[in-house]
Write a structure and sequence with these properties.
The complex is a heterodimer of chains A (about 110) and B (about 110). Chain A has about 110 residues and is mainly beta. Chain A contains no helices and 11 strands. In chain A, strand 5 (about 40-50) and strand 6 (about 55) form a beta hairpin. Chain A is globular, with a radius of gyration of 13 Å. The mean pLDDT of chain A is about 95. With about 110 residues, chain B is mainly β. Chain B is about 0% helix and about 55% strand. Chain B has strands at about 5, 10-15, 20-25, 30-40, 45-50, 55-60, 60-65, 70-75, 85-95, 100-105, 105-110. In chain B, the strands form 2 sheets. In chain B, strands 2, 4, 5, 9, 10 and 11 form a 6-stranded mixed beta sheet that branches. In chain B, strands 1-3-8-7-6 form a 5-stranded antiparallel beta sheet, with no helix packed on it. Chain B is globular, with a radius of gyration of 13 Å. The N and C termini of chain B lie far apart (about 40 Å). Classes of the chains: A mainly beta (about 110), B mainly beta (about 110). The interface between A and B is medium-sized, with 30 and 26 residues.
Chain lengths: ~110, ~110
């Protein structure tokens, strides 16, 4: 158990809809990261937050947004969903934003778009 | 453009023998490297890491070697155990623009009893 909690484990929805994925980092971790794992792209970095502030962005679509709340949990919002958004979405956390720190991953949310 | 590559999609090894997993990278700005293990229906689990100022790091049965000139790292697992059967990902970070990780495509390891 990594200590990172992601809910829900599975989401099934339709094209055009909007969903929210939730992540609670390990106790004491201030930095949260979101990754997408799809069959053809592997694990891809989406976005990082540190103590409530956005720190880095990867190839995140404009239809996607995220935030980190004062209690440090984070939410990833996906809107106008398309079939290609079907993927595993992982959240990870680390102690702070410094380099040379391992990130610890949750078990992911599997999103299926019908 | 795949900056981190694991060229072997799968590896089969006998229990008790050594497993060697390889990873190549192209971005010379990468300065921190990690290996993760992933079981089905679980998230990646951190195994071991190495910073670019070192060429070797050891933790129990796991040793990571880094060859900066060749832009190559490897993970050695000795001895291999059936519970090591999983997908292994190497990842790298350049320390800039946050601490984002760039992952390889993974190597599926099967340890036969």
């Amino acid at each position: 158990d990594s200590g990172v909690t992601q809910t829900p484990k599975h989401l099934i929805t339709a094209t055009g809809q909007r969903v929210t994925l939730r992540c609670s980092p390990r106790s004491g971790d201030l930095s949260v990261y979101w990754y997408q794992q799809s069959l053809d792209q592997g694990l891809q970095f989406l976005i990082q937050y540190y103590n409530g502030e956005e720190r880095a962005k990867g190839n995140i679509l404009e239809r996607f947004s995220a935030q980190q709340f004062p209690d440090l949990h984070s939410e990833l919002n996906l809107s106008s969903l398309e079939l290609g958004d079907s993927a595993l979405y992982f959240c990870a956390s680390s102690v702070d934003e410094g380099i040379n720190q391992p990130q610890h991953f949750g078990d992911g949310t599997r999103l299926s778009i019908l | 453009d795949q900056q981190v590559k694991q060229n072997s999609p799968s590896l089969s090894v006998q229990e008790g023998r050594i497993s060697i997993l390889n990873c190549d990278y192209t971005n010379s700005m990468f300065d921190y490297f990690l290996w993760y293990k992933k079981y089905p229906a679980e998230g990646p689990t951190f195994l071991i890491s190495i910073s670019s100022i070192k060429d070797k790091n050891e933790d129990g049965r796991f040793t990571v070697f880094l060859n900066k000139s060749a832009k190559h790292l490897s993970l050695h697992i000795v001895p291999s155990q059936p519970g090591d059967s999983a997908v292994y990902f190497c990842a790298a970070s350049d320390g800039a623009a946050g601490n984002k990780l760039t992952f390889g495509g993974g190597t599926r390891v099967l340890v036969k009893p």
